[in-house]
Amino acid sequence: MFGIGKSRDRELDAAVKELAGADTLAFGGVGIAGTLLPVTEAYRRVEEALHAHPDEARDKVDWLLRHGSPAGKAYAATLLERVEPAAAREAWARCATTRASSPPSPAA
């Protein structure tokens, strides 16, 4: 659970920063041990904040949609599905448009 005031702000900022740099989507444990990745824990912290402090957390999710990695944007769109489905659909559409307009990666 989040702390109070400044501590809560720092925890939320750290979680959003973790999601912004994500290169993997994982919503549960991975591997045979079911280990939670740091990005999954960050997702859960932001999800919690959306319920406890919706206005503050929503601002952070909106920032993530604008500045996150492709995986970070997918996390943001998924978070929005629970609190504002119409905004989530728009976010997913933007993700698809961005992906479709990106140049292809070089063949390996």
- From the spread of the alpha carbons, the general shape counts as globular
Q: Oligomeric status of the shown chains?
A: single chain
Q: Indicate the radius of gyration in whole angstroms.
A: 15 Å
Average pLDDT confidence is 86
Structural class: mainly alpha
Order of helices and strands: HHHHH
Main beta-sheet strand count, sense and barrel state: none
Number of helices: 5
Strand content: under 5%
- Give helix % range: over 70%
Task: Write a concise keyword list for the protein shown above.
108 residues, mainly alpha, 5 helices
Protein described:
This protein is mostly helical and 108 residues long. The protein is built from 5 helices and no strands. It has helices at residues 5-20, 38-52, 54-67, 70-83, 85-101. The longest helix is centred in the C-terminal third of the chain and has 17 residues, at 85-101. The model has no long low-confidence stretch (mean pLDDT 86).
